[in-house]
Amino acid sequence: MSTSKLKNIHEKLPLPDQKPIPPGRARVVLEVVKVLPELEPTGNGPCSEAPCKTEVKITRVMGYGSGFNQALSEGQQVQAYFPMSVKAGGGRPGVTAGKKITADLQNSLNEHDALVIHSYTLFD
Length: 124
Hints:
This protein has 124 residues and is mostly beta strands.
């Protein structure tokens, strides 16, 4: 094997500390542009007490799991939905405008729907 082929193989291997990306998800780095203030009017879940929708800018696409069928690009601004709200709690950090996070996004059913944040951590 030539060294150029070896180099390409090594560049595509996941980093040892990076978890595989589950099917139907994409892993991205996002910058929260704005937390949208509206609360969900029905029910008594977390989104009726604290905001769950945000506007985010994708700063880096780290990869896609199989079956994720939406094209994401760096610099793209989209709406993101945090099912447990943007408020800190249950071991989750709070999310505010200006924060950068690494997130696993779920496919949305419609390309105009907000992307659903499955899990996230603050970006160092």
